[in-house]
Amino acid sequence: MYRPAPRTPCLAQTPLSTSSEKVLKRTSQPYCREAATLMRLLLDRQTRKEELLHALHSMHRTGRPLGGPKEYTLAIKALGRQSLWKEAVSLLDVMRLVGVQASVITFSALISACRQGSQWELAVSLLHGMILLGLKPDVIIYSATLSACERCRQWEAALTVLHEMYQGRVCADTIAFNAAVSACEKGGRWDLALSLLAGAALHHIQPDVVTFGAAASACGNGQRWPEVLGLLARARQLPLPIDIALWSAGVAACERSQAWAKALELFAEAKLSGLPADAILYTSAVSACQEGARWEA
Q1: Does the first or last residue of the chain, that is N or C, have fewer Cβ atoms within 10 Å of its Cβ?
Q2: How far apart, in whole angstroms, are the C-alpha atoms of residue 166 and residue 173?
Q3: Of 241, 282, 242, which Cα lies nearest the Cα of 264?
Q4: Do the beta carbons of residue 247 and residue 211 sit within 8 Å?
Q5: 87-113, pLDDT tens digit by residue?
Q6: Higher pLDDT pick, 162 / 271
């Protein structure tokens, strides 16, 4: 049987920002005590998950609205931070029942909560749902949806969302683009990762080290070491600092493809770059030495 945790004695004295106090006053006056209690907990980032759930259930039992779109969006954001994606999404149904219209910011908070919970199907469904309501997703919403797909290795869904983003004339930023490339990498589709990278300029996207790193990792997993070397060469031509992750991906790709001499050559270049080596770089180099019988390298 569920027993709510005792209230924190100092909760009532928790200092709030001026904007938070305004939200609290606006909520507590026209609605009910349960709404005011819930809002205070939502505004306190130290609130425990159990306490937040108890206050939310108490609010639901009253059958009264929490407030307007801002209050519900604040609640969804707080629930998302606590990884309570089910409860966050349930508030969308509550908003419909009490006649509160969800905004673009509301859907952004909902999709972010789904991303936190690795609920890619729900994130995509919410994206399509807001479009049906006549709301226009922005680049932040698309990025969160793509990130949800990427976390779950759903490269097909990620590419579909990216295509819809282009069709909707929303300018993709590097964050959204990298999520799509990373989804291809995690899904084992090195060919699609390279295809996305090749078309970046068409959509006015400037790849960064994360882009090249994800593409290189995809090629490495597919034992496509010549492609990795091509990515390294391209990265050198751009005003980008090559980080150790990109070097490591190159060495690992060569080692997996049994191109041991090239792996050690890249390892030497990485060391000359002055960047601190990571475990992947050293492990791949040692493995290349062992497999290639180059113990004295």
Answers
A1: N
A2: 11
A3: 282
A4: no
A5: 999 999 999 988 999 999 999 999 999
A6: 162
Closest to 104 (Cα-Cα) out of 71, 124, 127: 127
How far apart (Å, rounded) are the C-alpha atoms in residues 280 and 275? 14
C-alpha torsion sign, points 10, 13, 16, 20: positive
In residues, how long is the chain? 297
Q: Looking at 56-60, 94-98, 275-279, which range is the least confident one? A: 275-279
CA atoms of 248 and 254, how far apart (whole Å): 10
Structure tokens at 57: 């259930």
- Say if CB 5 and CB 48 are below 8 A apart: yes
Distance spanning both ends of the chain, measured CA to CA: 64
pLDDT in tens, 165-188: 999 989 889 999 999 999 999 999
Tell me the angle at which helices 190-198 and 225-237 cross, rounded to the nearest 10 degrees. Answer: 20
Closest CA to 67 of 24, 126, 111, 104: 24
What is the pLDDT, as a whole number, of residue 166?
93
CA atoms lying within 13 Å on the CB side of residue 286:
7
